Structures are given as structure tokens and as C-alpha cells.
Amino acid sequence: PERTISVFVMGEIVAPGKKEISSGTTILQFLAQSGGLGRFAAEKRIELHRTDAKTGETTVYLFDYTGKASGSRIASSTALVAGDVIIVPERGLFE
């Protein structure tokens, strides 16, 4: 049987909240399952908050939905893990 995990999404997303997804789901697939980005989403600075189970330390990774940003961004193929929180911030005025 396929294992399900709980992840959370908030901000400029069509269907925010706690989601039960299949283990191995990528961040891009997850955003699609959550109804897609909201009208005012900052597509280039979506945040993935991941907490290390051993240390309790949270690391924030940036994801660019458009795929155009360079630098230290995670790939659209990044698999989510249990407890991940995705925050889709609102776009700034000149973004």
C-alpha cells in the first residue's frame, strides 16, 4: 500500500490547509493538487519550511514556480516529506 504523509500549505494558494499526499509527491505536483497558485502569488519565492526531526531546526528553501530564477533554489522535482510547510507569499508591488 502507498504511504501517505501530512504536509501543510498556506498563503496565496487556491486550497490552503493540511493535505494528505502520497509519499514521493514533488513540490510541483503538490501545488497542482492544492488547486494552483492564487492570483497574487509571488511565483518566484515560494517557501518550503522543513524541520529536522533530530535537531528541531527548521530550514527554509526557496522555490521558483516559473523556473527562471537562478541561485540556490530547490528543483520542481523535490519530494516533500511529512511535516513540510509550504508558504506562498503575496506578490510585492513591483514583482
Structural class: mainly beta
Average of per-residue pLDDT values: 93
- Overall 3D shape: globular
Largest sheet, in brief, is: 5 strands, mixed
β-strand percent reads 25-35%
Provide an overview of this structure.
The chain has 95 residues and is mainly beta. It is built from 1 helix and 5 strands; from the N terminus they run ββαβββ. The chain has one helix spanning 27-33; strands at residues 4-11, 17-22, 46-51, 58-63, 85-88. Strands 2-1-5-3-4 form a 5-stranded mixed sheet, with no helix packed on it. β1 (4-11) and β2 form a beta hairpin. The longest helix is centred in the first third of the chain and has 7 residues, at 27-33. The chain is globular, with a radius of gyration of 13 Å. The termini are far apart.
In short:
By secondary structure, this protein is mostly beta strands. It is built from 1 helix and 5 strands; from the N terminus they run E-E-H-E-E-E.
Task: Fill in the keyword field for this structure.
95 residues, mainly beta, five-stranded mixed beta sheet, 1 helix, 32% strand
Helices and strands in order:
Blueprint: E1 4-11, E2 17-22, H1 27-33, E3 46-51, E4 58-63, E5 85-88
Parallel strand pairs: 1-5
Antiparallel strand pairs: 1-2, 3-4, 3-5
